[in-house]
Structures are given as structure tokens and as C-alpha cells.
Predict the structure.
Amino acid sequence: MIDLTGKTAVVTGGSRGIGRAVATTLAAAGARVVIADRSDALRTDGASTSDVITAAGGIAESVLLDIADSQQVDAVFGDVATRFGIDILVNNAGVLSAGTVLETSDEAWRSIFAVNVDGTFFCTRAAIRHMVDAGKGGKVVNVASISGLRANPGFAGYCAAKGAMVNFTRQVGIDYAPLGINVNGVAPGFVETDMTAIYDASIRGALEAQTPNGKWADPQQIADTVLFLSSQLSNHICGEIIAVDGGWLVGTPVVPVASAVSA
Ligand SMILES: NC(=O)c1ccc[n+]([C@@H]2O[C@H](COP(=O)([O-])OP(=O)(O)OC[C@H]3O[C@@H](n4cnc5c(N)ncnc54)[C@H](O)[C@@H]3O)[C@@H](O)[C@H]2O)c1
């Protein structure tokens, strides 16, 4: 039902994790995918995301980009727009660092905002500039977090940055709704990626217990929602954030879910 043939998608941070699943999913739906990451284009082992997509019969290329550098962003997006146009942007690249405010240095704060907030802004502006010029509408999907919709103890910078992404999504979502550019976001819960490999078994168990369906997400489950928001099926959704979190934001269990249900 979702056919993105003829569309070009830029996926930031697509060399691994959620971004890789997003890139392969959009490509499987027919899109040409440009993976813009600070590492993917450097891979020479045949295992870059674009190599994987191409081997599966899709159309993809990897571009080296630090999204925190607005000049690089404008140059890369200008080049992609000239060659293919830009129909879809997925702002997925992000970084995580822990710390209360007293544990957060100036440098750590600036670095988390530079990627998650500034980078999202630079890429969104560059893509929307071309979407407006082309006059065909478009899709922007921001990968925020449950940490942008409620507090997450010990993650001051990350929660503030993801919160900024969430309201940025809403704002841009209404500004460009009249032009047929849908700007929406997903808020993943806990997802099995390199980013969350920092958690040891006891923390993982505690987080599972706090999640109503008792599970972490597979990156593919986030990608499936991004695919929906990148498609014509989401044409009437503007500035919305969809949580993909096993029910975590809706209600954290105070007793294990299974015993609550059987009681
Ligand atoms: N994993 C989770 O549980 C989880 C939960 C909620 C939200 N998220 C968000 O999902 C997104 C992807 O997370 P992930 O778990 O796949 O992370 P990851 O660390 O596995 O992958 C992040 C990717 O972003 C790229 N990247 C980082 N900084 C960049 C920059 N300045 N320029 C270009 N590329 C850059 C990295 O090279 C990497 O490929 C992030 O925005 C993250 O905050 C993740």
C-alpha cells in the first residue's frame, strides 16, 4: 500500500541503529535513499547502509555529513536537491549523554544541543527550502524520544534537547501545513541499538518492568512508524508526535502488568 517509488529521502544518522532500519525500510518501499551520517560514507567493508540497500536491489548512496555544521548541511542538501530533489527528510541522527545539571559540563550541554537541536534545525531548514521551491509538498519526520515528552531522571541535557525537538516539530508542522509539507515526529521508548548498549542487565530489566508490554523495541518497529509518516497515508497529520514505546508514556505499571491483569 505504501509506494515511495520516485521519491528521494534523506536519512540522517542512517549508518546504524534506528536510522539504518529507517533507510532500508524507505528503500524497500521504493524510495531513493541518501544516508547522511558522519561515519557511514567512510565504510569500505561493503556493509554500509547504502551497500546493504543496493545489494537488495534498492537505490541508495552514503554522504559524509556532520549535521551540527550548517554549511556542510546546506552544501549536501543543495547537491541532493539539484540531482534528485528532496521529498522526504528523516531527522534521526542524535547523541545521548547522561547527567543531572550538576553533572553536565558546558561542553556536554553544547554538544548534545549541537546535534539533536541545531542539527535538526539545519537539516529541516535546508530540506524545506527545497521542498518550498519545488512546490510539491514533502515529509519531514523527526526522531525525538519519550525523553522529550516527560522527564527522565539523570538525563538533563538529553531531555531538554529532545523536548526542544518535540516543540520544534509542532511549530514547523503548522507553519508549513498550508504548503502540503507534513512535519511530524516519533518518540521511541527503549530501543535495542548501540546507543542503549550502555545499560546493564539490571537496568534493562527495570526498564522492561516499567513498560506496559514488557518489551524494548526493535529498530524496525520505529522504522515502520517513520514509513507511515513518510507516506501519503499521513497527509492529514501535521506537527504530531507518535510514541512508539510499548505504552510507557500512557502508564507506567505500579505492579507487574501480568499480575495486574490476572488480579
Ligand atoms: N535507542 C533508543 O532507545 C532511542 C530511544 C529514543 C530515541 N532515540 C533516538 O533515535 C535516534 C537514533 O538512535 P540510535 O539508538 O539508532 O542511535 P545510534 O547511536 O545507534 O545511531 C546514531 C547515528 O547518528 C549518527 N550521528 C551522531 N551524530 C551525528 C552528527 N553530528 N552528524 C551526522 N550523524 C551523526 C551516528 O554516526 C550514528 O550512525 C537518535 O536521535 C536517538 O536520540 C533512540
